[in-house]
Amino acid sequence: MMPAHENYDVIVVGAGAGGMTAAAVAAAEGLSVLVIEKTAFVGGTTAWSGGMVWIPANPKMKQAGLSDSVTDAVQYLSSTVPEPANAGLRAAFLARGPEAVAWLEANTEVRLQPVKAYPDYYPERLGATSGGRVLEPVAFDGTRLGRAFVRLRPPLPEFTLFGGMMVNPLDIPHLRRIGRSLRSTLRAARLISEYMLQRLRSPRGTTLHLGNALAARLYASLLARQVEILFSADVEDLSMQGDRVSGVVIRHGSRDRAIAARRGVVLAAGGFSHDAALRKRFFPPAAGFVSASSPSGTGDGIRLAATAGAALNTEATSPAYWVPASLFCRADGSRGVFPHMVTDRAKPGVIAVNAAGRRFVNEALSYHEFVLAMLRDGHGEPDRPFYLICDRQFLWRYGLGRIKPFTLNVRRYVASGELIEAPEIAQLAAKIGIKPSVLAATVASYNTGAKEGRDPEFGRGSTIYQRHLGDAAHKPNPCVAPILRAPFFALRIYPADLGTAIGLKVDAQARVLRGDGTPIAGLYACGNDMGSIMNGNYPSAGIALGPALTFGYIAGRHLAEGGVTALAPSVATTSV
C-alpha cells in the first residue's frame, strides 16, 4: 500500500524506539507524520531487547521515594565516560530526559516504572545509584493493538516459554520454584493458564513485557494518532531544495515515488550492525561479524545522510555496544544468535575460558566489559574461540544460553554440536581443542576458592551489580560455586554487538550536522543512526534506549516548534 498523500509535515525513516518516539511526539503536537519501515514489523531491536531505559533523576524515582540528582549523574558519567567529546549532548540528555519521560506519559501510551533494585554497572564509582535510574515499560496487553498486533516484531523465541509466552523478570524465580513453593507454584499456574487462554485467539502470548511492551506502547501511540506507517519500503534518496532536506524518494514494490516533508525528515534506521563494509571500516578485526541486533540495521540512515553532506561522529572509545553471544540453528534452518546478557554468566558455577583454556575475565561484569576483555585477549585475531564451562548441576538449575533451566534432555543440543559434553574436564578440553592439563588446572584453581564462595583471581561477586545478577539464594557468594558434578559442558561464545555507537553527528536538537558543525536544515537523527552520546562506553542498562527516547522526543518537539535554536558545541567528525 502506497502512502495516502504526497506531502507530510514529518517523515520518519525507521520504526524502532527512537523513530516511533519522534513520530508520536510530532503527531501529538498536531503534525502530519509518515513512518517508513523497511521490514514488515515495527519495533526494531527494541522489540527483542530488555526494554530498559536509563534516565537519571527521572520523575518516577521521586515518586518511588528514590533519591537522585543531575549532579550525581554528571559525577558518575565523568568517570564512566571520561572523554570530553559530546559533553553538550550528554548535558542535553540529562536536562531533557526527565522531561521526555513526563511528556510521553502525559501524551502517549508509554508507561514506565522504576526498577528499584538495578545498580549502575560501575556501582563503586562516585555518583552511582543502586536502582531507579533504570526504567522499564509497564506490561502491555497486545490485544489493544487489534489487527495491527501482527505488525509488532515478535520477541526472540529463545526468550519465551511454551512457544510464545513472555515472562516478567520478577516471575522467573517463581518459575524456578515450581513444586518447591506453594506460592510460586500457584503463581506459575496462573501465568500459564492465562497464556493458554491467550493462545486460543492469538499466535503468541499477548501479555507483553520488556522491549516488546515498549515497542507495543509506542506503536499504540502512533495508531491512536492515526500516524500512517508504510511497511516493506526502502528509502532510496533524500530530496533536497537547495541545502535543505525536503523529503524522500521511496522504493515500494517496483515503483519509485517522491514524498515531501514540509518540516523535516528524521533518520532512525537502526545503525549499521549488519553492513559488512561499515563493520570492516570501524570494527576491530577480532569482533567478527556476529550481531544480536535486528537485521534491518544495514546503514541506510548513514548512507542517506551522506548525500546531504552529513558527518559521522567518530569520538567513540568503542564502535559498538558489545555482548557475548552463542550461535545455533533453529528448527526452521535460520541462524539464531543468543545474547548472554544476564541469564547465565554471573550465576554460580560457570566460568569463561579463552583459546588457551584459561580464565580471562570476571564473568559477572557487564556484557559490554566482558566482550572488551574478549577483544583484548584475542589480540586482534579474528574467530578466536572462547567458551563457557559448567557442570550438569549448573545446566539444570540455570540453563546455558538458549538452553533453559530444568531441560530434561539436552541430547539434541549435543548432537548438533552446539553444546559440547564430556564425563571429565580433560576430555571436554580435548573436544574443544584446548590442552587438557591447562583446562583441568584452570577449573581446579577456580574450585579451590569457589568452595568457600571466593574468587581470588577476578573477585567475582564483589559489587552490588554483580551480586544482583547472581543467585541471591546461593550462599555465601551469589556469583561463585565450584564446578564438580559430571558430565561437564562447554558452549562457544563470540564477541557480538547489540548496536552501533558510531553514528551521525547531531546537535542538542537532534539536527544532523555537517563536518563544519552547521546543521543540515530539515534533517534529524536519533536511535543508533545518531552517534553515541556515551562515546561507546556503557555505564548502565538502558543507555541506548534512554538517549533514543530522549532525542526522539527532542526531534519531535523541535520539528513541532518550527526548528530554530542555537547549535550545541561541535564534536570531532569524519566524512561519511
From TrEMBL:
FAD-dependent oxidoreductase 2 FAD-binding domain: residues covered: 9-545
Top-level taxon in the UniProt lineage: Bacteria
Signal peptide range in chain numbering: none
GO terms under biological process: steroid metabolic process
Cofactor entry: FAD
Alphabetical keyword list: FAD, Flavoprotein, Oxidoreductase
Molecular function as annotated in GO: oxidoreductase activity
Protein name: FAD-dependent oxidoreductase
Record lineage: Bacteria, Pseudomonadati, Pseudomonadota, Alphaproteobacteria, Hyphomicrobiales
Organism listed in the record: Bradyrhizobium niftali
Classification via InterPro entries: FAD-dep_OxRdtase_2_FAD-bd, FAD-oxidoreductase_2, FAD/NAD-bd_sf, Succ_DH/fumarate_Rdtase_cat_sf
Pfam families cross-referenced by the UniProt entry: FAD_binding_2 (PF00890)
